[in-house]
């Protein structure tokens, strides 16, 4: 077995302590932090790299190049180390130190971009470089690469349906690969399954990895029309939920996971008995120890 074979088949956890199921509604979370680099992004990075190799776009003389807020970059770096590819990443300078150190530990290089321009700024810079030197770089372009959503359609969505048969699915979007792939597959299994799109409540938010779609570059793989309902989440509510998950469920997860669970819980409170709400735990909490989410604990 190699590290690529460890991606996927993550467990689903029923959240019985944080959510009062007195109304007969169940809440489930798919533990994507159990992937080898610690996040859901392992699935997309693996799919895009393998497609690049199979299509001949990624050869040993090329450098894997992309923009990232952290998690996809960590996955690229991990797979690059395992498969023998160089990796170069553009990311906002205010990304957590833990994310940067993980990327560097795998031997990848980082070009930091203006934190005020966020993920869009990093994306614009990497686009320019990829166009300038196409023979030097393999640019997967996670925002526009349909291998991103396809892998979640083929794997994550199938696993989730098999594991807990949800009647409702709620998740946020960054590149939107997880949200789009899982939602499409669940709707194919059962068109009555309801989909909720979670987004930060404003353009200036602290939900790392999540996009406020109205104020940012929209990924080509994103189609919001699949959502039946929309939720917005405040940063402080995501933080509070992440802390509750650690204290009440023993689940040490990141900021976007807290936002997903908060939206799922708020929705679950309004649903009829017998409903089964599922969401995604995107990554672990270790990569945010220096961030406000955890740093004030001591």
Number of domains: 2
Gap between N and C termini = 40 Å
Give the neighbour order of strands across the main sheet. Answer: 1-2-10-7-8-9
Shape: globular
Low-pLDDT runs = none
Helix content: 25-40%
Count of DSSP helices? 9
Strand content: 15-25%
What is the third-level CATH name, the topology of the largest domain? Rossmann fold
Helix vs. strand class:
alpha/beta
* Computed CA radius of gyration, to the nearest angstrom: 18 Å
CATH architecture of the largest domain: 3-Layer(aba) Sandwich
The succession of helices and strands, N to C, reads: EEHEHEHEHEHEHEEHHEH
The mean pLDDT is 93
> What is the number of E strands?
10
Largest sheet: 6 strands, mixed
What CATH first level of the largest domain would be assigned?
Answer: Alpha Beta
Features:
6-stranded mixed beta sheet, 298 residues, Rossmann fold, alpha/beta, 9 helices, 4-stranded parallel beta sheet, 10 strands
Structure, explained:
With 298 residues, the protein is an alpha/beta fold. It has helices at residues 41-55, 71-83, 97-105, 118-132, 146-164, 177-189, 235-249, 255-268, 292-295; strands spanning 12-14, 26-31, 63-67, 86-92, 109-113, 137-138, 168-172, 194-200, 229-233, 276-281. It folds into 2 domains: 3-36 and 156-295, Rossmann fold (3-Layer(aba) Sandwich), CATH 3.40.50.1100; 41-138, 3-Layer(aba) Sandwich (Rossmann fold). The protein is built from 9 helices and 10 strands. A 6-stranded mixed sheet has the order 1-2-10-7-8-9, sandwiched between helices. It has a 4-stranded parallel sheet with strand order 5-4-3-6. The longest helix has 19 residues, at 146-164. The chain is globular and about 60 Å long. The mean pLDDT is 93.
């Amino acid at each position: 077995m190699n590290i690529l074979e460890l991606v996927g088949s993550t467990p689903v956890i029923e959240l019985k302590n944080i959510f009062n199921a007195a109304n007969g509604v169940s809440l489930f979370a798919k533990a994507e932090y159990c992937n080898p680099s610690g996040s859901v992004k392992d699935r997309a990075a693996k799919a895009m790299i393998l497609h690049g190799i199979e299509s001949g776009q990624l050869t040993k003389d090329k450098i894997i190049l992309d923009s990232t807020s952290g998690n996809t970059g960590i996955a690229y770096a991990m797979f690059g180390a395992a498969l023998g590819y160089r990796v170069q990443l553009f990311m906002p300078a205010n990304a957590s130190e833990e994310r940067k150190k993980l990327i560097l530990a795998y031997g990848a290089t980082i070009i930091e971009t203006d934190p005020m321009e966020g993920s869009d700024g990093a994306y614009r810079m990497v686009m320019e470089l990829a166009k300038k030197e196409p023979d030097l770089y393999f640019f997967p372009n996670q925002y526009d690469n349909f291998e991103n959503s396809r892998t979640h359609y083929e794997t994550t969505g199938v696993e989730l349906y098999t594991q807990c048969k949800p009647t409702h699915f709620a998740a946020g979007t960054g590149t939107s690969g997880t949200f789009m792939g899982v939602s499409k597959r669940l709707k194919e299994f059962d068109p009555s399954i309801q989909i909720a799109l979670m987004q930060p409540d404003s353009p200036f938010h602290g939900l790392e990895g999540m996009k406020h779609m109205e104020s940012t570059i929209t990924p080509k793989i994103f189609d919001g029309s699949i959502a039946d309902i929309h939720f917005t989440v405040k940063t402080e509510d995501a933080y509070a939920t992440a802390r509750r998950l650690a204290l009440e469920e023993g689940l040490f997860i990141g900021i976007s996971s807290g936002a997903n669970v908060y939206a799922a819980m708020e929705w679950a409170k309004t649903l009829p008995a017998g409903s089964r709400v599922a969401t995604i735990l995107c990554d672990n909490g270790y990569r945010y120890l220096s961030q406000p989410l955890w740093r004030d604990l001591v």
